[in-house]
Amino acid sequence: MDHIVTVQDAVTAFADFMEPTNAELDAIEQEMPVVLADVELLDAHIITLDRTPTELDHRRIRRARHRALAARAALVNRTASASLPGGAA
């Protein structure tokens, strides 16, 4: 009988190098409000897939879309103000 051996050492040999850097983790943290707002919008759309949307569903989608757009605008404004040296002029 032949034994199957794992090659985990070969597979995970470079795992330390594949970890996200602190800069990448900071970027993910900054984008998290946008991701959460997009998930909320997606949830609002999923709710209406198997039925005719009611007025409440339309309002829920509208509010979620507004939150997603506001989160994106806030992210763009944060990154734009962070990249301008000496403040906006």
How many DSSP helices? 3
Mean pLDDT: 85
What is the succession of H and E elements? HHH
State the total count of DSSP E strands. 0
Estimated radius of gyration: 22 Å
Q: What is the CA–CA distance across the termini?
A: 75 Å
Shape: flat
Q: Work out the helicity level.
A: 55-70%
Which structural class matches the secondary elements?
Answer: mainly alpha
Explain this structure.
This protein is mostly helical. It contains 3 helices and no strands. α2 packs antiparallel against α3. It is flat, with a radius of gyration of 22 Å. The N and C termini lie far apart (75 Å).
Descriptive keywords:
single chain; 89 residues; mainly alpha
Task: Give a brief outline of the structure.
This protein has 89 residues and is an all-alpha fold.
Task: Provide the fold topology.
Elements (H helix, E strand, L loop, with lengths): L7 H4 L10 H26 L7 H29 L6
Helix pairs in contact: 2-3
